Amino acid sequence: MKAIIPVAGAGMRLRPLTYTQPKPLIPVAGKPIISFIVDQLIELGVNDFVFIIGYLGEKIREYIERVYPQLNTKFVNQEERMGSAHAIWLARDHYVDADEIIIFFGDAIIDADLSEFVRSKVSCIGVKTVEDPRQFGVVEQDLEGNIRGLIEKPTIPKSNLAMVGCYKIREVQQFIEACAHNLEHKIRSIGEYPLTDALARMLEWGTELRTIRVDNWFDCGRREVLLQTNAIFLDRPGFATDDPPPYDNSIIIHPVHIGPECVISNSIVGPHVTVGANSKLENAIVSDSIIGDYARIYDIVLRKSVVGNDASIGGMRHSLNIGDNTEIDFGG
Questions:
Q1: In whole angstroms, how far apart are CA 299 and each of 282, 307, 313?
Q2: Chain segment 84-118, per-residue pLDDT in tens
């Protein structure tokens, strides 16, 4: 089995954070999003990975090669973003000989026992019921649970069963042909070639597909979801810093994750705060937030905030040097 991880997106909804940091490397509970995915697949026995990179892709490559040197990894660059099926098709030479492939989108966290994917005798799609399925690929099923249709971001959904970005494909050659068919005939949805349409083509050709429901799915493309996911995982064993070192005249309200070499003084940190390595907090109150590496936070109260690497946020004197698409809420 080979794992295909598309990570070429630009993370538009998380700008300005993603101007310099690819979304898969944004930390949640002290761990980059992509590490949740890779670690899950390693536990399933997967050692061969193909990453489709694009925007800031060299940062992802450097991280994977540094943190996971034991893996057999290949990197394919998607220069023009034309959709997920196009991205995966570009990497076909690296998995054409695989008995089966497992596909995980690299910007979401799947909270489920994925061993069911490995055991499945047929190709399968991870799904979860959502309130508004119009922003997702949607699975339409009959009363017996058989898949009758796969639609990408329908205007009027006939189902609220969304695809969550994890798939297992056993008919690898047919999958490559389905992607190629849609590309050759310019069969697009919303101007792109999504994976949903390639799977729909396989269904049309008679391939058996089944759904596997996941417990939780965190699409970390929005700040609110990112912070909610950070809080959920900090509440779980193994993510929070259990015994942080003493900090100067400061109070730590658990759960928090505090990276190494941080300096914290005259501050209150927590609950549900992730602080990256080598950051400095002075005279600050921070809760429900994610602070990147080498950040400086001083003379300020922050809540429900995401602060990038090397950022500096001072007191309420309103002397600002802020880039495009920044959101600042002094009343929040």
A1: 7, 15, 8
A2: 999 999 999 999 999 999 999 988 888 887 888 88
- What's the angle, vertex CA 134, arms to CA 129 and CA 135, rounded to 5? 90
pLDDT at 316: 60
Can you say whether the dihedral through the CA atoms of 96, 97, 100, 101 is positive or negative?
A: negative
How distant, in Å, are the alpha carbons of 265, 281, 296 from that of 317? 21, 17, 16
Element housing 32 (H / E): strand 31-32
pLDDT in tens, 229-240: 999 999 999 899
Instruction: Please spell the DSSP secondary structure of 277-305, one letter per residue.
Output: TT-EEEEEEEESEEE-TT-EEEEEEEES-
- CA 327/CA 121 separation, integer angstroms: 48
Dist CA 120 CA 216 (whole Å): 20
- CB of 26 closer than 8 Å to CB of 109: no
Structure tokens at 143: 């009363």
CA-based nearest residue to 44, from 113, 96, 104: 113
pLDDT above 60 for 205: yes
CA pair distance 7, 23, nearest whole angstrom? 8
Task: Residue 88: name the closest of 106, 71, 72 by CA.
Answer: 106
Q: Are 151 and 196 in contact (CB under 8 A)?
A: yes
The whole-model pTM stands at 0.87
Report whether 152 contacts 197 (CB < 8 A). Answer: yes
- Round to whole Å and give the CA distance between 170 and 185: 24
Alpha-carbon distance 226 to 213, whole Å? 22
For residue range 116-131, list pLDDT tens digits in order. Answer: 888 889 999 999 988 8
DSSP H helical ranges for the chain: 33-43, 57-67, 84-90, 115-119, 172-184, 195-204, 223-234
8-state DSSP, 34: H
